[in-house]
Amino acid sequence: MPENRLDYDHIVLVSIDTLRSDAMASSPVRAWPAKYRTTRRPRRSILDELAASSAWFPNCVSAAPYTSASHASFLTGHWPLRHGVHELFNRALRTPTLLANARAAGYRTMMKVDFPLMLGEHLGFTREIDEYIVRDDDAAVRFIEGNRRACTFIHFSGAHIPYGFGDHELSTGEFARVLDAVEQECGTSRRRPRTSAGSAAAGPYQRYLDIVDHLYRSGDYSTLFSMYLDGVDRFLVTRFAPVLRRILAALDGRRALLVVFGDHGEEYDAESFAHQNSLSDGVLRVPLMIHGDGVAPGCHRSRVRSIDLVPSIHDLVGPLPPAEADGASLAATIAGGDAYPVRDAFAQSYIADGREHARQVKQALLRPGSRGPLPHTLIGEAAYVGPWRVVRRLGEQYLEDGAWRVRPVEPRVRFERERPDSTWEAVAHAEPPPDVLARLDRYNALAGEAPADRAGAAGTADSALRDQLRLLGYRI
Q1: Quick one: which H or E segment has residue 231?
Q2: Does the first or last residue of the chain, that is N or C, have fewer Cβ atoms within 10 Å of its Cβ?
Q3: Which CATH architecture has domain 10-161+222-341?
Q4: Tally of CA atoms within 13 A in the half-sphere of 10 that contains its CB
Q5: Strand partners for 377
Q6: Which of 222, 304, 287, 305 is nearest to 45 (CA)?
Q7: Omega before 28 cis (within 30°)?
């Protein structure tokens, strides 16, 4: 903990949804070049400029491969099994966020989100928020400019499907031009895939998702990943950089702490469709940058966890009430560049059965008020322990009659060992120490130690929310 804490006027957290760490040009850890055949390379951007003047952690492990659960860990400092939002879309937060603690300390609080479905009231994210803004970057900047003392969270969806565009930017001429170009490049303009509803006259968003699905079924993972990198570049230049420059200008002359992070990455292979069902290191490894007064710039390549952010900020800020967290403080590293121990990291993926979801929605329509929590299946989990990474697969998704189904499978375990360049290589089962799996089992025991659920189940999403989730690329 630093000896002299800073009484910050502003604490600003910025999230870039679906940004994996090695999608940044200056990332020192790159896993994708060895996997994908692509001439696309990330272009240097404002993120690389920010990283050079920040305490930069390019090897931050996210606690989950989907938006709600990952953000909940970044904002609470708790593992998903403790804060409650461990499934894809089901239960509400049961532990306070950094913003709630900041509000108790006298800060004005604001959340601006591009995905109100994933980061909204029904999952508990808006508790203790003075102003909640949906998809309005200008309003978010004005809030920072107009408040002397504020703690804010700003979420961007631009790197999510469809790549480089948010769901409120799809009517632009640029999106239409990109869509036509992608169809030409992929050879699907003359044999356009039919939509899940069987209609050949699909809207532009569905056409794009059909192309993604066509490429995935064809095993053309390299083209999909090239599209992802291209979209990240487009988003950072056209939308993110102008807003970030305005935020930095608004913070100029004020005591401020700015945090920028990704919630999860993107991956395509036989086990990974984008991110939701993936435990790939490319999905779980995200960038974390901390910039501002009292921060010692430097790149720290050793592993940290998303749950370490909140205890670090609490140590740096001082006047916030003390927070109990599962994470460990990195304040001494952020303020003084000190070394830190490498700690265990865990992640899990829970998937809802699409047919069961449809059954519950139908039941709710016939019998209002009858719906309950949507059952989820734990299909996989990962543990990072020292130089080892273990992935245990417990279920799989498959397509049946137009709906994504989930079934348990005999557990399959894969061990990986860390290379000198911080990437991973598979090894035989017998080599790793047996304690690696034991620690994963102890992590699962946290579910029985979680605090009582303050808000109960968020409930099953109705058909309109389910359609929104599908259009965001989630397989339910």
Answers
A1: helix 221-235
A2: N
A3: 3-Layer(aba) Sandwich (3.40)
A4: 27
A5: 351
A6: 287
A7: no
